[in-house]
Design goal:
Distance between the termini: 33 Å
Number of helices: 8
Organism: Bacteroides xylanisolvens
Number of domains: 2
Pfam family, one: DUF1896
Protein name: DUF1896 domain-containing protein
CATH class of the largest domain: Mainly Alpha
Radius of gyration: 18 Å
Length: 150
């Protein structure tokens, strides 16, 4: 029954819609509950695939273009970046079984750190800003752990 409720309203999503929904949920993007956003992105991805095929691209090439359209601007979620920091820098301090809860608890508290960075830039991880954000999140996590622990 829980599964049925979780999947309610999703049965009419296309392949791209379901893929995007899963991606958004897994990476804890705010848009995970925005049905209109998901449908619009999925429709654009399907159109991109169809156009590419009509232009002679092989199925794999058309699929790559469609996925690029589907995920453009969604490569870096706040959750995924913070989780990476916690996993890489605090593996000894935050046990694996507590990381999910810890990241979810810490995430709203470091929102202001994220606010000055453009996570929608698909090349964000290659920029010096990514290194600055990573460093700031590491510092914020140290402060939190010193004050409150896990």
């Amino acid at each position: 029954m829980n599964n049925k409720k979780k999947n309610e309203g999703q049965t009419d999503f296309s392949y791209y819609g379901l893929y995007l929904l899963d991606y958004l949920r897994t990476n804890k993007f705010e848009q995970a509950t925005d049905t209109a956003f998901i449908r619009e992105r999925a429709d654009r991805a399907a159109e991109t695939y169809e156009k590419a095929r009509l232009e002679g691209y092989p199925a794999d090439g058309a699929q790559e273009q469609a996925m690029d359209t589907l995920l453009r601007g969604l490569h870096y979620s706040r959750y995924a970046i913070l989780r990476e920091v916690v996993e890489n820098e605090f593996a000894d301090e935050v046990p694996e079984e507590k990381r999910e809860a810890f990241v979810l608890k810490l995430l709203p508290l470091v929102g202001n750190v994220f606010s000055v960075y453009d996570l929608s830039d698909d090349n964000f991880a290659l920029s010096s800003d990514y290194d600055l954000l990573y460093t700031e999140l590491t510092g914020a996590t140290v402060l939190y752990l010193d004050e409150y622990g896990v």
